[in-house]
Structure formats: C-alpha cells, structure tokens
Specification:
This protein is an alpha+beta fold and about 600 residues long. The protein has 9 helices and 30 strands. It has a 30-stranded mixed sheet that branches. Strand 27 and strand 28 form a beta hairpin. The relative contact order is 0.04.
Length: about 600
C-alpha cells in the first residue's frame, strides 16, 4: 500500500516538475526564431508565426499555434503559400509513460493553401524538399509501429480549409474547400464515426459533396476498414447533362495497407436516374494499378441525358468546317490495367431500344479488348467482339458483329427514321481499320459481311404495280392506275457485301417471292449516302393476285429495275427502253420459232 502511495506521489511530482519546467524554463516562443531560420535555410521561404505559442497541461499536454504563414517563392502571387488561423494538438499525458498515444484533440481551422503554377512552369512546391530530398528514406515505419501499443484519439476537427490551384498560363483558378472533417473517438480495432463536407469551384463546373460513415484501423496498422459510408454529390455546369447532376453512393470498403489492395462493395450508386450496384477491387502496389469491376445497372436512357437544342445541333454541324478533326488522345490507356464486367437492364440511345446487355471488357498496355458484348435487339440478338489498339498515335481496330432474328423495320425506323425495309434479319460483318475520326472511320474501314432477310417487304416501291404500268404503256394505255400501296412483299432477300473506301458493294443481291425473282448488284456510298443498284426482275407467275391478268405477256421476260437516290429518299425506276428491247427480242424469238416450225412441217417434219 505504501508502495502505491509512493508511486502516485512520484508520478504527481514528475508531472508537476515537467509542468514547471515547460512553463518556467522552457518557453516555446524562444524557439520561434530558430524554427523560422531553419525553414528559411532549408526552403528559402519565409515562415511567420504571428501568435504566441502556448502549452496545455494535465490531463493533456499540447500546444496551441496560430497566425502561421509560409510564403510562396519570391515574385509569386499570392505571396503566401500557406496560412493557418489556428491549430491545436493535445495528447493525454499519463499514457505516454506506457508507450501509448492518446490524443485528446486535434483541430485545424482556417487553413488556406495557394498553389501557383507560373507560365514558365515553376510552381509553389519548387524547393520545398531542400537538400535532403535526395537522401533515401530509411525504413523506420515498422519499428515505429512496434513501439506503440495503442492509439486513442478523442477527436479530430478540420474546418474551413481552402486550397486554390492557380494556373497563370491558362488564367484559371480552381478552388477546393474542405468545409469540415470530423472524426469521433478513435481507437485501434474499433470503429469511429467520421463525416465530411467538401466543395470545389472549377473552370467549367462546381462540385459539392458530403458524406458520413465509420472507419477502423487494425492494431497492426495493416488494414483500414470503412463501413456504411454514404456520400451525396452534386455537380453543376454547362457541360453537365441538364446542367445538373446528383449522385448518391453507399459502400463498404477494405484497404490492405501492407499489400496495397483496395476492395469496395457498392450497394447503391445512383446518378442521372441510373441505379447501379457492384464490386470494385484495386491493386495499387504495382507500377500500373490493376482494377477489377463488376457492376449491374438498371435502365439507361442516354437520349434523355444528352438533350440537343436546335442551336447546339447547328453549332455541331458547323464545327467540322471550322476546325480540323484530330485523333483522340488515348495515351492514358497505356497506364490502365482493368477488367470490367457489366450487366445493364436496358439502354436507349439515338432512339434505339435494347435490353439485357452483358459486357466483358479488358484494358491493358494500351489495348482495349471487348471480349464479349451481347444484347437483346428488336426481338433478336446482338453479339459483338472488338479490339482497339491505341499503342500507336493513330489507333487501329477490328471487330466481328452478328445480328440474328432482328425485326428490321422498327429498328430502321427508330435508328434513322427510315421505313424502306421490313422482315426478320440476320446480319454478320467482320472488319478492321485505322483512325477514330468519324470521316476517316468510314473511309478506312475494310469489311466483309452477309445479310439474310426473310418474310419481309420493300417500302417505297410496288414492283408488280410498276410492271403492270409498264405493260399498259407498252400497249399504248398511258392512264394506268398508280394509286396502290408502294410496297413489295418478298419471302427472302439475301446478299454478300464488302466495304472499302467508304463504299459498300453488293455483287449478288437476290430477292424471291411467289411472283417475282430479283437479282442484281450495286453499291451504297456511306460518305454521300448515294445508292446505285441495277436489278433484273423476272415474273415467275401471273400478276393476277396483284391485280394482273390470268397470264401476263411479260412472264419470263427480264425486267430491268434501277434503284438510285439516297438512303433517306431512294428512287425506283423501270428501264422501259431495255424492257421494250427484251420484249421485242422475246417476240422475235417466238416469231422465228413459229417460222421454223412452219417450214419444218412443209418440208415433211425434218
């Protein structure tokens, strides 16, 4: 019992002695000139400590600082790089004797940082490392950890901290403001509450964000865990869809500090009426961080996110003639090693509606590899794999695309407001090329493919009606009725095609129906949207079902048909002169056959 009393008396005496020494014999203000001179010698900067330094004592020992400023290099504006209104650090005294750190309070208020980059490339950070910057760091971290048995923090408060990023060359200032950051009672292996509020003013947008959650640091300092972190962010600017974006995120995260690995389980990600959830893993220990992401998204309406006014469309149309298009800078892809798996319930873009997207994408060493992309498309299926190689200044690409069982009429109507074709379409194409500039894409693309459309119709032309009209005109009737629906039904429409220099060439177009057979070849210019097709139509049956007679005079005769115009306004026409020549040839051949038969009979049937 006496031993305990003597121990307590000794501790009290020690505390009193330390207090007396610090207050009577150790005035921290005496060291202000030495601190200022050391900073000046090391960095060439002026350090100003305006307020007197003061101690705090039992049950905490600490120091109060205020009125601190550190100058920018000479000639910089603003003159001060760092200004601090008030900083307080208080540590519990008694636990220090057992190698424990218990911080009663850490607070920082009114800090202002001005980081300037001048036109010549010099910045506020130049020279701060001093002569000692070239010395290799000593591995003191493990031993420092081993010396501590616990860390307890009563609270941390950072308020009104402002960072100004000033770029004199661009004449821009970006302001980042940490309005507040608070951390509650914190101990190793225990969760502590935290919250923040942040704002930023950027050249083309403003950002505000706030969040709260819980944080835990393991006893061995190797693992940091963040749970129940809820973040709300709002972005406003002219370049933002609808000029305003609001996002909400809820997640749990673990960071393995020793292995430099981060994982996050995102239970909620909502932005622009898009809901998502997923998992994210990052290995940041390697030279190029490795990223793995697996996300599931709901309905996405890109048309609603990217509204275009008449003015914007006019400006977009005028841009190519005013500025020369340049290749997109994809050098950043060289610093990415990522794998992305994505599932999307539906996507609407350019008025096209698609469902059930599945995507497997990889990016590594400047190569984007779309291993698989599938989607439901107008009662059919889209399958695509592609690769973009950005290792050269001008990117190259290759792809293999297949569409099966798609209803082509609503697809064309939604995609391009075209109503020229209907039916169930199968389509496949393989291609490659260089350059990602839109016009160069069309010119440099080399591709081969095939299409097969069944149970469909051509809109804008009624081939049987055109034939009847031509028949009537050949007989002298110039008042043939032309008021029927301009549509030609068919059972199949097939062909192969190739694409080069912006021109798609189809050498073997074939269309079949109970009444007609159409074969031909032609081209479609993707640059000018011009059509140039020459077709040959043959009647294989009577046109009675299409308004014709029991037996048509043109049955069996090749009937030439031309398709010209553009994608938006195709024009169909019969080559009447060629039709007449074919018919005269047919009649002449028939007359020759009759004459031959008559002569044979007269000669005794040789």
């Amino acid at each position: 019992m006496k031993f305990i009393k003597w121990l307590l008396a000794l501790l009290v005496t020690l505390v009193v002695a330390v207090t007396l020494y610090l207050t009577v014999f150790f005035d921290p203000n005496d060291f202000k000139p030495e601190i200022v001179n050391a900073v000046k010698k090391q960095t060439g900067r002026e350090l100003v400590i305006g307020d007197d330094l003061s101690w705090t004592f039992f049950p905490t020992v600490g120091i109060n600082l205020g009125g601190i400023s550190l100058s920018n290099p000479e000639g910089f504006t603003p003159k001060a790089m760092l200004e601090v209104n008030k900083a307080v650090a208080e540590v519990e005294l008694m636990p220090l004797f057992s190698k424990q750190i218990e911080i009663a309070q850490l607070s920082l208020d009114g800090a202002k940082i001005n980081l300037v980059t001048r036109k010549n490339g010099s910045s506020s950070l130049d020279g701060l490392t001093g002569k000692g910057a070239e010395k290799p760091a000593t591995p003191a971290e493990p031993s420092a950890k081993a010396q501590l048995t616990s860390i307890d923090v009563g609270g941390v408060s950072i308020t009104n901290t402002e960072i100004n990023l000033i770029d004199e060359a661009k004449g821009q200032t970006q302001t980042l403001t940490l309005k507040q950051f608070t951390l509650g009672a914190f101990s190793l292996d225990k969760f502590a509450p935290m919250a923040y509020e942040f704002a930023a003013i950027l050249p083309d947008m403003t950002v505000s964000s706030k969040g709260e959650g819980q944080i835990k640091l393991s006893h061995d300092f190797n693992q940091l865990v963040i749970e129940k972190l809820d973040i709300e962010t709002q972005v406003e600017g002219e370049g933002i869809p609808n000029k305003k974006l609001t996002a909400e995120v809820s997640l749990n995260s673990q960071i393995a500090l020793d292995k430099k690995q981060l994982s996050a389980d995102i239970s909620k990600l909502m932005a622009m009426d898009i809901n998502a959830a997923g998992k994210l893993a990052v290995n940041y220990g390697s030279k190029v961080p490795q990223i793995n992401a697996d996300f599931q998204l709901g309905d996405i309406d890109l048309d609603a996110l990217l509204p275009k006014s008449d003015t914007a469309e006019k400006q977009a149309a005028a841009t190519p003639s005013q500025t020369q298009a340049v290749e997109p800078d994809l050098t950043a892809l060289n610093g990415i090693d990522a794998k992305l798996t994505l599932a999307v319930k539906s996507i609407k873009v350019a008025n096209l509606s698609t469902q059930n997207w599945l995507m497997d994408l990889g990016i590594k060493n400047g190569v984007v590899d779309l291993k698989q992309l599938t989607a439901d498309l107008y009662q059919g299926k889209l399958m695509l794999n592609a690769q973009v190689d950005a290792r050269s200044k001008v990117a190259s690409y290759q792809f293999d695309k297949q569409i099966s069982g798609v209803q082509i009429r609503p697809l064309l109507k939604d995609a391009a407001e075209l109503e020229i074709l209907a039916g169930t379409a199968n389509f496949n194409v393989k291609g490659k090329g260089k350059s990602l500039i839109p016009e160069q894409l069309k010119k440099n693309l080399l591709a081969n493919g095939r299409f097969d459309i069944t149970d469909g119709a051509l809109y804008g032309v009624n081939i049987p009606q055109m034939i009847r009209s031509a028949q009537a005109k050949l007989k002298g009737d110039m008042s043939a009725d032309t008021k029927e629906e301009r549509k030609t039904d068919f059972s199949s429409l097939t062909g192969n095609f190739s694409l080069e220099n912006g021109v798609a060439t189809n050498p073997d177009l074939a269309m079949s129906s109970p009444l007609l057979r159409v074969v031909g070849k032609g081209s479609a210019n993707l640059l000018t949207e011009a059509l140039d097709y020459r077709l040959t139509t043959t009647l294989v049956n009577s046109l009675k079902g299409q308004g014709g007679s029991e037996k048509d005079a043109l049955a069996g005769i090749d009937i030439p048909l031309a398709i010209t115009g553009t994608f938006q306004k195709p024009e169909y026409a019969l080559d009447t002169q060629a039709l007449l020549n074919n018919q005269l040839k047919e009649e002449t051949d028939k007359a020759k056959d009759k004459l031959k038969d008559s002569l044979l009979k007269k000669l005794g049937g040789f």
